[in-house]
Amino acid sequence: MAWNPARQLFSLAFGRPEERVHGPRARVEAGPAELLAVRAASICVASGKGGTGKTLLSASLTVPLSRLGRTLLFDADLGAANAHILCDVHPKETLVDVVEGRLEASRVTLRAADNLDLLSGGSGFSKMAGLSSYELQLIALGIEKLEVGYEYLILDSAAGLSRQTVAFAAAADLVVLVTTPDVTAMTDAYAFLKVLWRQRPQGEVLLVVNRTRSEEEARATAQRIRDVSLRFLGRSPRLLGTLPEDRAAFRCTQGRKRVLAAEPDSPLGRALGEVGRTLVGELSRARRKGLGRSLKRRLDWGLGGGGRNPQGGAAVDGACRSPASGPA
Questions:
Q1: Residue 219 CB contacts under 8 Å (≥ 6 apart), including other chains
Q2: What is the pLDDT averaged over residues 59-82?
Q3: Which pLDDT tens digit goes with each residue over 262-295?
Q4: φ/ψ bin of 128: left (φ > 0), alpha (ψ from -120 to 50), beta (otherwise)
Q5: 3-state DSSP: the chain helix, strand, coil percent, rounded to 5?
Q6: Which domains does the chain have, with CATH numbers?
Q7: Do residues 157 and 44 lie in contact, with contact meaning Cβ atoms separated by under 8 Å?
Q8: N- to C-terminal Cα distance for the chain?
Q9: Helix count (H) and strand count (E) of the chain?
């Protein structure tokens, strides 16, 4: 598959509307051993590029989920974490302390709201953006212990296609991919799908189109991504929902608040509420593999890549090369 034809298609106009497909999926019954240690249902909120509203969505989804059960918000933008801002908390301990061996993961969680805890990836630590497999194992082991104490785990991932970002997404029960109508955002969303499905061919991906100016634009954006993905990857993400351009996003970010907590009746708040309700239905049908346990297994099997490269950054797995490097 060539990358250029797919990229060019995002510049074309598509006229037919998006169809929301939410067909039932078969429930996989857990065995007796799994039932003894029920894991949190995990959602990875991801994006191909920054500025799509990924953190705003992640933080807002904690509102309906925490009403249903104890929830953990894991800010996995390691080294540049900022989800704490929308929760209006100030973490003193982060995953930096876990990676450096000072604390266990259970000691760095922070109470963010009723029934909601935050696990921060730390801010201002460049080395966290390129961890070795051993350091990722430390994080995976910590999450594996934590996740049995929660009903839901929302992972706010870093933007882009780094090895550890894709590894987190591949380990989650569901991936929510966020894009905007911007051509570069759509192109990078497609790139993320290509890399993720190369690592985890059966991974479940749901699409959210953010910052739309009309229903027509929202449907056209979703359809472009679905059409190009189906043509070049042989499958496409299902649409979870669309979110309108709304100043409520700016007001809540400036006020360090989650939209669904501060302005639930705004146009954006109502749309986020609908996305949250649909997501709850999706999670009720998802098999709970356990984010930490699944990540640990993937690292054990070598699916997360090697250690550090000679320059000190993370060695990039072959599946995480730029989509422009060649056919899928």
A1: 17, 18, 242
A2: 95
A3: 999 999 999 999 999 999 999 999 989 999 999 9
A4: alpha
A5: 45, 15, 40
A6: 37-306 (3.40.50.300)
A7: yes
A8: 6
A9: 13, 8
